[in-house]
Amino acid sequence: MSVIVPVYNAVDHLPQCLRSIAGQSIGFEHIEIITVDDGSTDGGGELLDAWAERHPGRVRVVHQENSGAPGGPRNRAVRMARGEFLFFADPDDYLGTEALERLVAAAERNDSDVVLGKIKGVGRKAPVTPFRENVDGGDIFTSKGVWSLTAHKLFRRSLVEEHGLRFAEGLRLAEEQMFVVPAYLHARSISVVSDYDCYYLVRRDDFPHLTQEVPDPAPFYANVRDVLTVVASHVPPGARRDKLLYRWLTLEILGRFDGRFADLPEEVRALHVKLAGDLLSAFMPQTLVDQLPPLSRLRCLLISQGLVEELTALTTLVPRPEPKPPAPPARPASAPSRRLARYTPARVLKALGRRLRRGR
Question: What pLDDT shows up at residue 351?
Fold first, then answer.
């Protein structure tokens, strides 16, 4: 069993992660920890070296210059791995004590190439849909694995090597999908361990979480296109493919057009709309769009027609959380705030009506 941990400036949280791996009920003698220090500057590299010195052969450390994202370090560790199974952990998270024992048992019992272990959110959200019940030897549909595309899972290394599965490099959001989605589609079977908290996904106020960032549109949509191409090449058109595509339509595409969208520079908003529209046209059938709620269908229409201003206005109508603590006394509005102040509901609906009547 090879547990892979990419590390960048996580020295305050790394000991808890490493202890949770070393203390697994499966036995540390059955585990190798492969850590890739991605140019840490906080002493994390030295901490890893100390662990490797105390546990020769059990903890392996590689140091490299910072790559800017976890995909490259993970790929380097995959090439080094010797275990029958791979598990990916992040340095600010930790594992339940019986996690690896239960995941390996499910893989061996069901001849599974991928096993999802229940993810428990600590101060943050975690996926729920795939973990409502145990699944023994299912597939991407019965496991509902498409709703959990992070790397925090068990993978049979022979599957990874046979299909050359690797993470997208240099990408700071959704880089795991080009590894996880093909793994799901190529797996002989997929199992789910839902009756034990296998992985604790932790929110750290002092640690940057990439999922909270607004992605650079060009590489983000290019990566989504690559993933959707894989899905389309493996699953014929129809209801089953649409069931998978729904996830990317609602999260990766429409999910970019929330309240944060209006705060982006005008040229960035225009690029988001263009690239998202290209994906809608290439991959999302109208029958799938028609299943969406009215507001989501409207967003799809505006994206497809390239109506940046109207789409911006629409996102400002969605209520935002109240600030905590209360906001300080009002100051003169910034340029973006003055620009958005004119987007009242009446103005938005009037503008949308004009556009749609013109057939744009």
Answer: 59
